[in-house]
Amino acid sequence: MRKMGSIDIGAKRMDVKVDRKMLLDALSKASFVIERKSVLPVLLSADTEGLKLRATDLESFLTIGMGAEVLKPGSIAAPFANLNRFAKSLKGEVRLTEEENDWLKVSGGNAVFNLACIPADKFPVPIGMQDMPMAEVSGSLLADMIDRTAYAMDVEESHGGFRLNGILIERNKKDSLRMVATDGGRLSMVDRQVSGVSRLDLGKGGAVVPRKGILLLRRLLIDGKKVRKGLGLADPISLGIGSDHLVVKRKGISLLVRLMDCKFPDYRDMLIREKAKKGYLIEVNRLVLLEAMERIMEVISNQYQGVKITTGADYLEMVSVNPDLGDVEEKIEIKYDGELIEIGFNPKYFIGVLQTMDSDVIFLDIKDQTSPCLITGERDEGFLGLIMPMRV
Question: 202 and 249 share a domain?
């Protein structure tokens, strides 16, 4: 259920001084939520704690706190694109002064801009964030979990009757957090131990976070840097999940994302069935397979997307044919003692899985010509990738 509130505007005639770089950094983060040229406003609120900037697209709500000299408290909603453009052109400290009839004076150095705004109480803000149970989570751990699953999200609004353009977050065990993503042709799943995850309101079916919200969360967690092999944020973030929204708080930043109102496909039964089948395990070097799949992509097009894989006693043969461009054939060494298998896959799906893994040696578990391929790695504990077969 989507509830909207309005901001308490407090005293009139806000007057505040703020560091230009700090303001521009906050506006840059706001652009994660709203387009840089958007006519949507951002809310500026000054109180005893400093200056806060809020941005929303009505699905995600971002709040950024800044240290500032507050001469008079107050709030006003300013058009984002114009405020961002004006602030960039100023020099030195920026002063934001509310004038009569909802005008904002933006000044710095010898320059003064006057910006037409709207009253603060016209700016939508979410309610229901107070007193939500929170769990402390490593920022780099959460970002890594997103990295290992986000590639498998559907980019469309619907797929096969389900809306899959998001990531399922659920509790696997008492202190284990799980993320799952699928677009119907592939699935990615990762489990991580998170102390206090039992406090989160994940319900029976978990929480499905939409694609845009997941990508926004990823950018805010690591400020655009890639988190792998222990790099990135060591500081904890606070994570809360309610009945219809997810909240993350970190270093003066809070993000609320509306959850998707949908049922995630039942993936557990499929995994149980596949793991129960007697299959054939292929041991292969991850980078060798990745580079081979990347070369195969040179002849892939929208019409011809498959690669035929044939297993031998000590090799894996890959063939892809595109009548419009040409064909490619490659053999790589493997360890395998099963029967001959011929099966087709989309090489792009393999690349997505292999790029997110850390293992030097990986295992391809293939049951038969009609079953998906389960991918695990010796150094990727808690991670599983699944790729559905295709006709080639």
Answer: yes
